[in-house]
Design a protein that fits this description.
The structure is a homodimer. Chain A is an alpha+beta fold. Chain A has two domains: about 140 residues, Winged helix-like DNA-binding domain superfamily/Winged helix DNA-binding domain (Arc Repressor Mutant, subunit A, Orthogonal Bundle); about 220 residues, 3-Layer(aba) Sandwich (Dna Topoisomerase Vi A Subunit, Chain: A, domain 2). Chain A is about 45% helix and about 15% strand. Chain A has 13 helices and 16 strands. In chain A, strands 9-6-12-11-13-14 form a six-stranded mixed sheet, with helices on both faces. Chain A has a four-stranded antiparallel sheet with strand order 1-10-7-8, covered by helices on one side.
Chain lengths: ~375, ~375
């Protein structure tokens, strides 16, 4: 049994963040007392300021900043919205209540803070993330996410009413939802030696049924397509806190390859954040080269599949190794295969044959 | 504590269905021995054969049937596909393995049974449902569903490896996924006196946080939009087996009203099935009339919202009472409001004020 290295993480994060918010508030009061217009300096998220950092192995923001000052008529609106959001985030954190992007938009109306529409409030939420260098989930704003997890991992809840209560994530065979409570839970112990992230719920269920968790000592995560942020955060925690290697299984297409890439090194959209990547994660399939090797039934690519390949070929992360090679093979064969395609050889072919072969291969990746 | 009236339901259903499949198979053998071409007689699902049954309070199929005979060249393909699917369903049931619509499509290739594409195999699955008058979930074919449930309900699993194992659905505050294991679990006991189905995950989380389960002795179900079939099946079981009343909360728009209607009386698509409705379920909001009463922030309706109202006004279920009235008011105000709109009056306004008022009102509905 491995013990979590970081106990009381959630509570520590909460206190730190409350402190950060308080300090921001104090700065505003300071400015006002000195008869200065208060302002926020926000790392710029414009395309020209997003750069790939080879050492961190993810996108980060450069040094450009944008100013939101109360002393500038054109910035006053965004400044006010940001101050309100910081106030509201402080309230959510203090009361340990969660909220959603949609809720934030409506909640602002209670305070007569004007947002034109939800995209405007969503954008201010990203501004606050950038100012604090913390994900919105850290200040209790959760999107609706329906991804899930299964395997021998005992967690201890930290949410109000559940403090100290434990669950083992193999207790419910349909999988545990990854939501606010799981995100803030502490990892107590596990017998797992591996994390398998898989793109599709149907396959997740198959893996649970076929006891992949026991046979391969694995925690299984259903990313439900492109992994939502809380799911990427959980994958990172499993890797860092428990030292577990993470492997990723996706459909054999360009979108699958990129799902794996985003888990590994994040997205340009979240370049202002650090806690959502697993740089050591390995994409083990379905590769373009697997399609021929395993004689999988295929579907022809669409125009947009092909366009997407050309786009990714410009991304610095696809310039070498297997990532580059697989894009090239996809482009050559112009066909794709789904994870379910293995069912042609029987429902358990993927767990009996393909998975063990790819896990063995992953050791040398 | 109420005890489930129907214990061992899942196992009983499984045995019955295996028997049904076996009998169908025997009929085919009989025909062959008598040198007759075997055939299936399938209740017709054409629009002209779908009628609303006032007594059952749901859509049902009329008396027209379609024949799939091995002796008719144009029907031979569908006949063969149906026989194969019955064989495969028998295998899934015997081995207690689950599958998905997608998996069925690929699995057929292992047997060289030809399906043009997935819509063709999906259609044959509905044919088998109609032949057996059983939902595909009963023969272990599950779609990917991401709805969830929370509250004091102790269940006992029946899936392989978990037989006899119990969970209480309030143990995981992010909610329990409604999947194959939950669907086939037995309900052991509950202190709940009510089921609240709610359309949105964000509100579901809010309800859990605000302890709606305890304050209102409720089991809370997130339908994640239009309730998937397993979710409707679970709602029906909670109502029938535990005798719990079911109330439904949706967004204040025509789609919300219809989400409630489908939970109550099913859809024309599933007219060949009986186990997916809760005729006594009550839609408690957000009504069109609530929008003004509670001074909710609104959004203008789109053209397609308005078109949908006109469509539903032709549906026999919307010809009277509150269902009719609310459609009329929506059409008059041409605006809609989301559940999150209550956040204008504070995050807990919906649980502190609106919910208790509407639950009180529901007693007289």
């Amino acid at each position: 049994m491995k013990k979590s290295k970081n106990s009381k993480i959630a509570e520590k994060k909460r206190i730190e963040l409350l402190e950060l918010l308080k300090n921001r508030g104090l700065e505003i009061y300071d400015d006002l007392e000195k008869s200065k217009f208060p302002k926020f300096s926000i790392p710029s998220r414009s395309v020209s300021n997003i750069v790939y950092d080879k050492k961190l192995r993810q996108y980060i923001l450069g040094n450009s900043t944008a100013i939101r000052s109360a002393g500038n008529m054109s910035q006053l609106r965004a400044f006010t919205q940001l101050v309100w959001l910081a106030f509201f985030a402080n309230q959510l954190l203090s009361e340990q209540k969660t909220s959603t992007l949609r809720d934030i938009y409506y909640s602002s109306q209670a305070f007569e803070v004007d947002f034109e529409d939800q995209p405007e409030s969503d954008n201010i939420i990203v501004d606050l993330e950038a100012v604090l260098a913390r994900a919105r989930e850290d200040f209790q704003i959760f999107p609706e996410e329906r991804s899930s997890i299964f395997g021998d991992l005992t967690i201890e809840y930290t949410v109000p009413g559940y403090e100290g209560k434990r669950s083992n994530l193999s207790d419910h065979p349909d999988g545990y939802l990854i939501g606010p409570s799981l995100n803030t839970a502490e990892f107590v112990d596990t017998s797992a030696e591996l994390v398998i992230a898989i793109e599709k719920g149907g396959l997740f269920t198959r893996f649970v049924e076929e006891k992949v968790d026991k046979k391969f000592k694995a925690i299984i995560v259903d990313t439900a397509g492109q992994a939502p942020r809380s799911t990427r955060y959980i994958l990172r925690r499993l890797h860092i806190e428990l030292g577990l290697p993470v492997v990723i299984l996706t459909d054999g297409d360009v979108y699958g390859e990129h799902i794996a890439m985003v888990i590994k090194s994040g997205s340009a959209n979240a370049a202002h954040l650090r806690e959502l990547t697993v740089p050591d994660a390995k994409w083990i399939g379905v590769w373009a080269t697997d399609i021929e090797k395993y004689k999988l039934p295929t579907i022809p690519m669409t125009e947009s599949d092909i366009k997407r390949i050309y786009e990714l070929q410009k991304d610095p992360r696809y310039q070498h190794g297997n990532w580059k090679k697989q894009l090239e093979v996809f482009l050559k064969i112009k066909r794709k295969a789904e994870l379910e395609a293995f069912s042609k050889y029987g429902l358990t072919n993927i767990t009996d044959k393909y998975l063990p072969q790819k896990l063995e291969l992953a050791k040398s990746l």
